[in-house]
Design a protein that fits this description.
The protein folds into 2 domains: 43 residues, no CATH class; 58 residues, no CATH class. It is built from 3 helices and 6 strands; from the N terminus they run ββαβαββαβ.
Length: 114
């Protein structure tokens, strides 16, 4: 599971169960050591829209960021990849922040309200 610390803006991944168990007991950020309850660790979803990214980080996604995109239509379309600046020109697209070389599943949809 990947996490984001809204104190130091660090992103990190717990790679094994032992570390996750330690984290559940001791909620200090492993990057900055913060344990202020107002500065929390936020789970990073495998796939997130630019709106979800902004809500999580408080920053707008860079226009040069790589994104996955496909038309938001009931017909089968494949995911493509481009810069956010290009993808957001068409308002009827599903846009997902590119975090891995693999696109979202073909039937992936953003959470309601995103």
């Amino acid at each position: 599971m990947r996490y984001y610390c809204n104190n130091c803006n660090g992103e990190f991944k717990f790679g094994n169960t032992e570390i996750r168990t330690v984290w559940e007991i001791d909620d200090h950020c492993p990057v900055c050591g913060n344990d202020d309850p107002d500065k929390i660790l936020i789970p990073i979803p495998d796939f997130e829209t630019p709106a979800q990214y902004e809500k999580r980080t408080g920053k707008k996604l860079s226009s040069n960021a790589a994104v996955w995109f496909k038309p938001n239509r009931p017909v089968d379309f494949f995911w493509g990849i481009c810069r956010y600046e290009s993808a957001k020109r068409d308002k009827d697209k599903i846009i997902v922040v590119c975090k891995s070389p693999e696109p979202p599943p073909d039937d992936w949809q953003p959470e309601a309200g995103e």
